[in-house]
Amino acid sequence: MRTILYFPVVAMVFLAGCSPFKEDKDGKTKIQKMRTVELLAFEIPQAKKVFKYEDLAKKNLKSTRLYDDFSTVASFDAIYLGDEMREALTDMKVSRRGWSEAKKQLLLKGHEDESAKWHVFYVMSEVREREFQSLADDLSSWALSLSVDDNDRVPSSFLKEIEPDPEIRTLFGTSYTRHKIAYLVKFEKKPNDNVEKLKLCFRSPKHAGDLDWVLDDTSMLRDAFEAKEAESVDQEVLEEPVEYKFANKRTDDISILFEPRQEEKKIEDGHPGEVVEMSREQLKQLNEQVTA
Questions:
Q1: What secondary structure letter does DSSP report for 286?
Q2: C-alpha distances in angstroms, 45 versus 18, 41, 49, 264?
Q3: Are 119 and 198 in contact (CB under 8 A)?
Q4: CA distance 154 to 151
Q5: CA nearest 195: which of 286, 278, 120, 96?
Q6: How far apart are CA 99 and CA 90, in angstroms?
Q7: Taking the domains of the chain in order of start, what are their residue ranges?
Q8: What is the per-residue pLDDT across 145-161, written as a single tens digit (0 to 9) for each?
Q9: Which H or E run includes 291?
């Protein structure tokens, strides 16, 4: 009972400075405003943001969720490990672990050798099956294959279930959850293969899903440029407008509204000839000869 009675007294002593009211110089009581920025700066120190590959990760991350009516069959998320992603992944690992520049160059050299031989993907999957088996298992109901530039699909050469590094989880962002299983998938790359499009295919006896990447969009840019050029040509004026010269005379006679027409006589060597003035009779005869 005494503890309950002491609590208001203790609160008044120690929480006196927490009053939302404050007196100004004139003795007037005003409500004290607490700035959120000050509260965050002094009471909740913010961590420094060092992740700078968010846009690159979104560009290379592809996701699909497959349904059967209203039931979810499976969901797949994949990141293609292209040259830019390899550099970003290496930079994140070196920065977090404090490795030297020599170690970084050694990792980049290993990624370069791997990129010359393999198409590499990191895959996150969640399959809704009663008797689910890992995608790396030969008896799994789902199989992975790859189509390069819309050609025939080829099976994976390497498929392994992995525990993803913190860098991999960061690149997947909100697509990564504890319910999903991570895999490292490799497909053999042909020598001197100038790839423009990749399609990672997921197949089961009942369902199918695909993830697409466009690696070389130069052909798309060229088509867009040619379409723009064709549109500009269509808008050009191919014929100059005909100008009519009216006589600077005021008269009620309609027949003399126009000045006598002047024809330009051209010489065979291409130089402009002299201007010949024709009468109405000559102009009429010339018109009959042309229309005859």
A1: H
A2: 21, 6, 12, 87
A3: yes
A4: 9
A5: 120
A6: 10
A7: 2-42, 54-220, 254-291
A8: 999 998 889 999 999 99
A9: helix 280-291
